[in-house]
Amino acid sequence: MLVEALRSVNVRIQQGEYLAIMGASGSGKSTLMNILGCLDRPTTGEYFLDGRDVATMEDDELSRVRGRKIGFVFQAFNLISELTIVDNVEVPLFYQGVPKQERRDRAIRKLELVGLGDRLGHRPRELSGGQQQRTAIARSLVTDPSIIMADEPTGNLDSRTGEAILQLITDLHEAGMTIIMVTHDERVADRCERIIRLRDGEIESDVKK
């Protein structure tokens, strides 16, 4: 049975935007994010990323584009527990074939950027939830992407820690990064410059502040 997760969705996102995607469970927000993040292709229609139609790309090319242009931050952190945090941050560069010393240098710089330069040898279980999410953000930045896709990035954090993570994301946006964030939290969305609300696979509203 074919389920139509999205229909008649027409969105243009400019470089440097800070965008929230909102909607109830089943509204299509995760599907939209997966398409925007090059994790899925649209079954019909077109998605152009920097002028290239993602729907026509082969798997290998799609993977390269995703790894080069997009960084992901998830609610569950998705860190490898057996590795130190510097090793965790290096992982995307390993898959891109970056030399070992360059991987290490770039990972350390990104961990210093998010305030974890003194925790390089720690493993995820030795860190707080906020520190683990900072590690995940450093990992998303290590490939120097132009877009960060954040899926409920504060969902597993207490309010104070969540606020600190949101401030870090805001700082990245103010430095020129495009931020696309899926959230159900109105307080999180209020920090964004634009809010797209989905309902039953369609855009209910698209508001720029």
Notes on the structure:
- Helix 3 packs parallel to helix 5 and helix 5 (129-141) packs parallel to helix 6 (159-174).
- Helices cover 37% and strands 18% of the residues.
- It has a single domain (18-208), classed as Rossmann fold (3-Layer(aba) Sandwich).
- With 209 residues, the protein is an alpha/beta fold.
- It has helices at residues 29-36, 59-69, 85-95, 100-113, 129-141, 159-174, 186-189, and strands at 18-22, 48-49, 52-53, 70-74, 147-151, 178-182, 194-199, 202-208.
- The strands form two sheets. A six-stranded mixed beta sheet has the order 4-5-6-1-7-8, with helices on both faces. The protein has a two-stranded antiparallel sheet with strand order 2-3.
What is the structure about, briefly put?
This protein has 209 residues and is an alpha/beta fold. Helix content is 37%, strand content 18%. Strand 2 and strand 3 (52-53) form a beta hairpin.
Please describe the topology of this protein.
Elements (H helix, E strand, L loop, with lengths): L17 E5 L6 H8 L11 E2 L2 E2 L5 H11 E5 L10 H11 L4 H14 L15 H13 L5 E5 L7 H16 L3 E5 L3 H4 L4 E6 L2 E7 L1
Parallel strand pairs: 1-6, 1-7, 4-5, 5-6
Antiparallel strand pairs: 2-3, 7-8
Return the string of H and E elements.
Answer: EHEEHEHHHEHEHEE
CATH topology heading: Rossmann fold
Radius of gyration: 17 Å
CATH architecture: 3-Layer(aba) Sandwich
Number of helical elements: 7
Name the average pLDDT.
90
Beta-strand percentage? 15-25%
Helix content: 25-40%
Number of strands: 8
| Low-pLDDT runs | none
The main sheet orders its strands as: 4-5-6-1-7-8
Q: For the record, what is the CATH homologous superfamily label?
A: P-loop containing nucleotide triphosphate hydrolases
Q: In terms of structural class, how would the helical and strand content be classed?
A: alpha/beta
Report the span from N to C terminus.
40 Å
